[in-house]
Specification:
Helix content is 39%, strand content 7%. By secondary structure, it is mainly alpha-helical. The protein has one domain: Response regulator (Rossmann fold, 3-Layer(aba) Sandwich). It has a two-stranded parallel ribbon. Helix 3 links the parallel strand 1 and strand 2. Helix 2 crosses helix 4. The longest helix is centred in the last third of the chain and has 27 residues. It starts with a helix and ends with a helix.
């Protein structure tokens, strides 16, 4: 969700790449639904950190605790910041309850990650 949200921000010079330490191979359907609710039609795919290992990033933002622990590959490049969010794909409950978790994480990403990038842009 973070890649889609950042890349959909009007006037942003940032280009986000979302990768995982253990990609599932697909974007969770509820993530796509929650993005569509805010007007983002994401066409991305699940990617591994190996796909961007040699990309020189200005800023690496890890969003889940396992990524913060398992992503030392960028420590010598740019800045690294961790903002912890729960993994909504691990939420339990009814579809309605799980969608609520996806929405909460989506809204938190939109607020916190976008605010962080605005600070780094200045």
């Amino acid at each position: 969700m973070a890649e889609a949200i950042v890349n959909a921000q009007p006037g942003f010079d940032w280009k986000a790449f979302s990768v995982g330490t253990k990609p599932t191979g697909f974007i969770h359907p509820m993530a796509l639904r929650t993005l569509a609710e805010i007007g983002i039609e994401h066409q991305g795919r699940s990617k591994s950190v190996d796909e961007v290992r040699d990309v020189p990033f200005d800023l690496v933002v890890t969003l889940c605790d396992s990524a913060a622990e398992e992503c030392p590959i960028w420590l010598d490049q740019g800045n690294q910041v961790h903002i912890g969010f729960p993994d909504p794909a691990k939420a339990n409950g009814s579809d309605k309850e799980v969608m609520a978790v996806f929405r909460e994480v989506r809204d938190d990403i939109r607020r916190e990650v976008v605010a962080l990038l605005e600070v780094y842009a200045n």
